[in-house]
Amino acid sequence: MTTIKLNRYYPHMTENITLEVSDEIAVVLSAGGRQCDSYKRRKREHNECFLDADPGFELDVMFPPLTPEEIILDEENRSVLYAALDQLPPIQARRVYAHYILGKKKSEIARAENVEGSAVCDSIRRGLKNLSELLKKFH
User: Fold this and answer.
1) Which residues contact 35 (CB under 8 A, 6 or more apart)?
2) CB-based contacts of 49: which residues, under 8 Å, 6+ apart?
3) Cβ atoms within 10 Å of 3's Cβ, excluding its own
4) How far apart are CA 34 and CA 38, in angstroms?
5) pLDDT in tens, 100-118
6) Could you give the dihedral angle defined by the CA atoms of residues 47, 53, 57 and 62, in that order, rounded to the nearest 10 degrees?
7) Residue 68: how many CA atoms within 13 Å on its side-chain side?
8) What is the predicted pLDDT for the residue at 57?
9) Distance, CA of 110 to CA of 118 (rounded, Å)
10) Measured between alpha carbons, how far is residue 31 from residues 28, 35, 43, 112 in Å?
11) How far apart are CA 95 and CA 107, in angstroms?
């Protein structure tokens, strides 16, 4: 039997509690503690943010929730963008949408449409130019 201090493994505990556990459990707790320490050290060495308070807390810090005004502005901007995309020729609109909204590579689009990659590049370039002109009219 091995005696351990629980607050070493559960830092949120405020009282010092010692407990006798079997040797197998002590080995597992010790190995888990070393793995956790190693993980934290690697995060620090690579200048990564380490916030272990609540699950999901990191996302709230890194990407704070949008305010109602920001949500409305995003929706308005998105509707203007889609209205401008609707005014492009269908091939340009489809290719610009696939590349910039869906994140597809130009080579993937060319393969899917069975056309040369240069045709897709030219079409997207013309589509962006036309989109720029259309968006100037909206603002």
Assistant:
1) none
2) 43, 58, 61, 62
3) 9
4) 6
5) 999 999 999 999 999 999 9
6) -30
7) 0
8) 60
9) 9
10) 5, 6, 18, 50
11) 11
Q: Is the pTM of this model over 0.85?
A: no
Say what the pLDDT of residue 24 is: 84
pLDDT over threshold 80, residue 88: yes
Nearest to 99 by CA among 80, 113, 83: 113
How large is the C-alpha radius of gyration of the chain? 28
Tell me the three-class secondary structure of 41-90, residue by residue. HHHHHCCCCCCCCCCCHHHHHHCCCCCHHHHHHHHHHHHHHHHHHHHCCH
Q: Which of 91, 127, 70 is nearest to 135 (CA)?
A: 127
